[in-house]
Design brief:
Number of strands: 4
Largest sheet: 2 strands, antiparallel
Shape: globular
Strand content: 5-15%
CATH superfamily of the domain at 65-177: Hypothetical protein, domain 2
CATH class of the domain at 65-177: Mainly Alpha
Structural class: mainly alpha
Number of helices: 13
Order of helices and strands: EEHHHHHEEHHHHHHHH
Helix content: 40-55%
Distance between the termini: 33 Å
């Protein structure tokens, strides 16, 4: 059953109002992550040190794998504003009402029963058939999404990239934000830009088609097994939030 989480941070205090239990809240917001230990591993230079100080306390989340996967498929060649609108429309049209103005994320079984024409109202464009295709595959147990949790990072990535519309970046995002593979280092335009500004000496000469893979490979070596956290701090800086 879906529920609303209302969260507000006041200084070092996080205030949560929700019918969900504490165990779920702690898991979703990764409140048990040892940030000081993570910082000690990723704090490799003056720039990362400054980012840790600037965004101290920033955590990743543990999103539901299905919701995370579809959200990132919707993000392909899209703006943040359009992504939000498309997901909101999809929830309003095919999710269940939780309370006024709030709807659950539609389950694969629900989306597997609708057609492309019905999906047009969500403004997903070329992404709509991809969402419906993977929804059907999961509903029919042809693709065991939740089983990826037990796979290694490399194995999980290979399986995700078998999905139509899922490349390396989307696979890495799902592995990081839904399956807790902290060695995942998604590289999009923002990360490529900031990594080029700071660490470009480490992939000089890389072919354009391989550049993002080389950036991620460097990050895993340089920042180590918690490089997913380093990615988030770099991403925040490039967005200028």
């Amino acid at each position: 059953m879906s529920s609303i989480i209302r969260a507000k941070q006041d200084g070092d205090e996080l205030m949560i109002v929700s019918s969900l239990d504490e165990k779920f809240i702690r898991h979703y917001f990764r409140l048990d992550d040892d940030l000081e230990k993570i910082y000690s591993k990723i704090n490799r230079d003056e720039i990362m040190d400054s980012l840790i100080r600037k965004y101290h306390g920033l955590r990743l989340i543990n999103q539901d794998p299905w919701e995370c996967l579809v959200s990132y498929i919707c993000s392909s060649n899209n703006t943040i504003r359009n992504i939000r609108n498309s997901i909101r429309k999809m929830c309003e049209c095919f999710g269940e009402k939780i309370e006024d103005g709030y709807y659950s994320f539609p389950l694969p079984e629900m989306l597997s029963r609708i057609n492309k024409r019905e999906m047009e109202q969500c403004s997903l464009g070329f992404r709509a058939p991809r969402v419906l295709e993977i929804a059907t595959g999961i509903a029919k147990h042809e693709f065991e999404l939740y089983g990826l949790r037990d796979l290694s990072y490399d194995e999980g990535r290979r399986e995700l990239m078998k999905i139509n519309g899922v490349g390396g970046k989307i696979a890495d995002c799902v592995l990081l934000f839904a399956f807790g593979k902290l060695e995942s280092f998604p590289v999009d335009t923002h990360i490529e830009q900031i990594m080029d500004r700071i660490y470009s000496e480490n992939w000089k000469g890389a072919k354009k088609s391989k550049k993002r893979e080389e950036i991620a490979k460097f990050a895993r070596t340089y920042f180590g097994k918690y490089c997913g956290y380093a990615q988030e701090y770099l991403y925040m800086e490039d967005l200028g939030l």
